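Question (not urgent): is this output format expected?
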Amino acid sequence: MLQAIFSAIFPAQAKAEKAIASALNVKPALVGEMISAMGSERGNLFLDHLKFHDFKEIGDAAFTFYIYRIYVRNQHPNEIRWWYERMIEKGFETTLSKERIDIVSMYLKHAGVDSDELRAFAAQYNIEYSTPSS
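Got this back:
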């Protein structure tokens, strides 16, 4: 019942949560937590981007969620490994490129993400989790 009310009041967020959660096989509430952490302005930018692509091109959104989980929520190596494997299993990019870090930093600034600290995290992450070239 509450989900139906939420979906009626915030249809774009509910659709985004469902699309990202479905793509990664996680609970929509986890995605909703990230969108809320973005704050109103950046959360709306995030949702507008997804709406523009009709919620179908969600690679960047899944990547933003990935960074939220492994950088903002829990940087424990076991957590990072679990999410890394989930992203690979679902066919999503896992390399933390400068361009992607800049985009994620913009969306997650309100959640406490500092661009310089995220770049330092990314440098270490990419050493440990770089995928071999084909």
